[in-house]
Design goal:
Elements: H1 2-22, E1 25-33, E2 39-45, H2 58-67, E3 71-74, H3 86-97, E4 102-104, H4 109-112, H5 116-125, E5 128-130, E6 134-140, E7 143-149, H6 157-169, E8 176-180, H7 187-190, E9 197-200, E10 218-219, E11 223-224, E12 231-234, E13 242-245, E14 252-253, E15 256-257, E16 264-272
Parallel strand pairs: 1-16, 2-3, 3-4, 4-5, 7-8, 8-9, 9-13
Antiparallel strand pairs: 2-16, 6-7, 10-11, 12-13, 14-15
């Protein structure tokens, strides 16, 4: 009887832990810049893999509405090559109904099933701006931001570099510039292009975290104890160059649960830098 009781308690504890690890979280970052007046708020989403957060994406949409971003940016693998696209389409329809501007770049899994053109077509049809080595302007009050994006590197090295260079040529030093690029491990390339902020996903936060010990155990294309796994990074000693990596929105990865690493919606506030007046 005692053994059974211990087993039930252990099973309940594991179940509660798994449920918490699948529960949507909201993570906030603040970026200061002298290129904005007041504040611009962006929502970053990555690696949904066509998962759902509540019926008709109710929980995810509610989290976005609660923070009322000026635009929603999607850093790839929102759709999946195995899971049907229904949940992704529901999300896009809901965002369009709420009139949020949406900007999207592809991830590697959207290419794997050979459906990338169909995926891009339904993204466009449902109101998203699909960025393929191009840029769009976002006007928020007196602020003008340049949002650029590149396809995943699976398009080939030559095409990928061409898209990056085309994006870099469309920016200027006066407007705050954002680059959407699925893979953070290419940061050495992005950092040379003078964007103010790079947004990525791909690594799912390392899937397993050990709090106070490691930010993530393993990331594809980076290996064990990866450098860029989730959070805000100041790269190369250059305070101007910042990278935010989303831990992604999928609840698990091909049956592997997330551990101390819940799916996340990222909220980014770009805030006017306070000028210090000498006495």
């Amino acid at each position: 009887m005692i053994k059974l009781k211990k087993t039930l308690i252990t099973t309940a504890a594991i179940a509660a832990f798994v449920i918490r690890s699948r529960r949507l979280s909201v993570v906030k970052y603040e970026i200061f810049s002298d290129k904005v007046r007041g504040k611009v708020r962006l929502a970053l989403m990555a690696d949904l893999h066509s998962h759902t957060h509540g019926k008709n994406q109710r929980k995810l949409i509610a989290a976005i509405e609660a923070h009322n971003p000026d635009a929603v940016l999607m850093a790839g693998d929102i759709a999946d090559h195995i899971t049907p696209h229904r949940n992704t389409k529901i999300l896009l329809r809901e965002l369009a109904a709420k009139k949020y501007p949406v900007y999207y770049v592809s991830g590697n899994h959207e290419y794997k099933g050979g459906e990338i053109e169909e995926i891009k077509r339904f993204f466009r049809r449902l109101g998203a701006n699909v960025l393929e080595g191009c840029c769009r302007e976002i006007i928020v009050g007196d602020n003008r931001l340049t949002v650029c994006g590149v396809d995943d590197v699976v398009i080939g090295a030559k095409a990928f570099h061409g898209q990056l260079q085309n994006c870099a040529s469309r920016t200027n030093r006066q407007d705050f510039s954002v680059l959407l690029a699925h893979r953070p491990e290419k940061m050495n390339l992005y950092a040379k292009l003078h964007f103010d902020l790079i947004l990525s996903g791909h690594v799912h936060g390392g899937q397993v975290r050990i709090p106070r010990i490691t930010n993530g155990i393993y990331a594809i294309h980076q290996g064990f104890f990866p450098k860029y796994v989730g959070g805000l990074y100041h790269v190369g000693g250059n305070a101007r160059c910042k990278l935010i990596v989303s831990r992604g929105l999928s609840k698990s990865w091909r049956g592997v649960p997330r551990v101390f690493n819940p799916p996340e919606l990222v909220i980014i506030d770009i805030v006017q830098k306070r000028r210090i007046t000498p006495l």
